[in-house]
Amino acid sequence: MRLALAQGDLGRARDQVAAAPPEAADLPLLMAPAEVAVALATGDRDTARARAAAMLAAAERFGAPGALGVARRLVGQAIGGADGIEHLRAAIGPLERSPLRLDLAQALVELGAALRRANARAAAREPLRRGLDLAQRCGSEALTDQAMQELRATGARPRRLVLTGVESLTPSELRVARLVAEGRSNPEVAQALFVTRATVESHLAAVFRKLGVTSRDQLPAALGD
């Protein structure tokens, strides 16, 4: 479900929510993000508010910053208005203390969008720019597009997307690149990162393209190591 949402594929997320086993309804920390996104996309705000509130209650019991930040974001999106903006603001701190970079990017973009809708265009630009930068680094095209559109709606001119160089690498691509630069083979990198060999090969192809290199030996210099 999280992958479908990150890719902006609400149809697939909706199908996955419908196919979830009944016992999953008792796991708001797991199910709520997809359920709220689907409910909001279909205009069912009552369900969105109820599921977001359930996740917030569970997150407060659980205590993890990431879960709390995601829950605050969902509540902010579900209730909207001035109160929603305050929940979105409250989501940023916990997410900054967590490893959930894509969720932080989404919270920043949602905060900026809410501020823009409230006619606070100048205030909206800073979270939108931060969210755009993080979305690019996380490799989320859907969120990048959303942030770009929201920035344009504030009257800002979004900076050119980072397409090449080390700054253009996603976190996963950078991890692969650094391990390969250390002299590790593709199977060794796959084992170290707990991913498949095909995933390593895919990331490495993107790394070569973005850094403008043609061999593994060129990676240390390209990375500045």
Secondary-structure element order, N to C: HHHHHHHHHHHHH
Rg, nearest Å: 19 Å
- The proportion of residues in beta strands is under 5%
Indicate the low-confidence ranges by residue numbers. 3-7, 20-27
Number of strands: 0
Share in helix: over 70%
Name the shape in a single word: globular
**Helical segment tally?**
13
On the 0-100 scale, what is the average pLDDT? 84
Query: What class, by secondary structure content?
Result: mainly alpha
User: How far is the N terminus from the C terminus?
Assistant: 37 Å
Please summarize the sheet with the most strands. none
Structure description:
The chain is mostly helical and 225 residues long. The protein is built from 13 helices and no strands. It has helices at residues 2-6, 10-19, 28-41, 45-62, 65-79, 81-96, 101-117, 121-138, 141-153, 171-181, 186-193, 197-211, 219-223.
Task: Give the key terms.
single chain; 225 residues; mainly alpha; disordered N terminus
Write the layout of secondary structure elements.
Blueprint: H1 2-6, H2 10-19, H3 28-41, H4 45-62, H5 65-79, H6 81-96, H7 101-117, H8 121-138, H9 141-153, H10 171-181, H11 186-193, H12 197-211, H13 219-223
Helix pairs in contact: 2-3, 3-4, 3-5, 4-5, 5-6, 5-7, 6-7, 7-8, 7-9, 8-9, 10-12, 11-12
What's this, in brief?
With 225 residues, the chain is mainly α. The chain has helices at residues 2-6, 10-19, 28-41, 45-62, 65-79, 81-96, 101-117, 121-138, 141-153, 171-181, 186-193, 197-211, 219-223.
